[in-house]
Specification:
The protein is built from 9 helices and no strands. By secondary structure, it is mainly α. It has one domain. Helix 2 runs parallel beside helix 6 and helix 7 runs parallel beside helix 9 (about 245-265). The protein is globular, with a radius of gyration of 18 Å.
Length: about 280
């Protein structure tokens, strides 16, 4: 018998337009890309390599609020925000555990593999500085992830799943998500190879996010937590992410996404293929 996560995966709102959402997000992002092209960085605020265009996360929130208000007025906006923050309505809270722990595990495995096959990496240390920085990074990245996932998970993914099924929708949305990040990646002075592998990681990560979202009972909070931990884990990598290798991390993430696609039914990613 299908579980609750599968029963709840179908969208009840046919007004949402993922195409309008994506076009509006990209349009709103253009000013941030132009400002970032001038070389402005956020390093004065946080000690990591992020261009000003990284602030484009507000574009996903803005696009979501604009379209939701057009489609459902203020009641729709309130319902959307309530769905993001209402922890009690998340039916399968056990899925918060992988939402928080899975990405750190991927990064630790990436660190181990990199240390085995390449030059030695700086030792992982738990210092007072890290203890103080980690909560700050979590709060900063939780806010930015929340602004994004209100759009990607709270608005766009459900009508896409209704049309194509969860796996195809997550891959397509992952490609859109990756393309949207390409200009900020270039503005952070990353190489073309780095960007390609990071985009591969991004697509795999979106499959994982949709898997978590659906299994948690369509919970934007579960998606937000995993998204947050992507950034927190990456930038806690030795010396604020300076040794981060998207090729290794991307391969691990894609393998995990493939395992999910093989073990869970593609229509919802919320029903185990080999269960009763």
């Amino acid at each position: 018998m299908p579980n609750n996560a599968e029963n709840n995966w179908k969208s009840k709102d046919n007004k949402k337009s993922p195409l309008k959402f994506v076009l509006l997000v990209f349009a709103l992002s253009i000013p941030f890309w132009f400002i970032g092209a001038g070389g402005a960085k956020l390093t004065n605020l946080i000690p990591i390599n992020l261009p000003i265009s990284a602030l484009g996360f507000v574009c996903t929130l803005s696009a979501t609020l604009i379209l939701t208000f057009q489609e459902s007025k203020s009641r729709g906006v309130v319902n959307l925000l309530e769905s993001v923050f209402d922890y009690k309505k998340t039916r399968r809270k056990v899925w918060f555990a992988p939402s928080i722990l899975l990405m750190p595990a991927i990064i630790i495995l990436s660190y181990i593999l990199m240390d085995l096959i390449g030059p030695p990496l700086p030792a992982l240390q738990v210092s007072l500085k890290i203890v103080l920085v980690a909560p700050v990074l979590f709060v900063v990245f939780f806010v930015s992830a929340l602004c994004e996932e209100v759009g990607w998970s709270g608005y766009a993914i459900d009508p896409m799943q209704d049309r194509w099924g969860a796996l195809k929708a997550s891959i397509f949305l992952g490609l859109v998500w990756a393309v949207w990040h390409v200009i900020p990646y270039f503005e952070a002075n990353n190489s073309l190879s780095w960007i390609v592998w990071q985009c591969i990681f991004t697509v795999g990560a979106r499959v994982i996010i949709v898997w978590l979202y659906n299994n948690a009972g369509k919970s934007p909070l579960a998606a937000t937590l995993f998204h947050t931990m992507i950034n927190v884990s990456t930038f806690l990598f030795p010396i604020y992410g300076s040794y981060y290798n998207p090729e290794i991390t991307g391969l691990i993430t894609i393998v995990l996404a493939i395992m999910i696609a093989l073990l869970w039914k593609s229509e919802t990613l919320a029903r185990f293929r080999f269960g009763s």
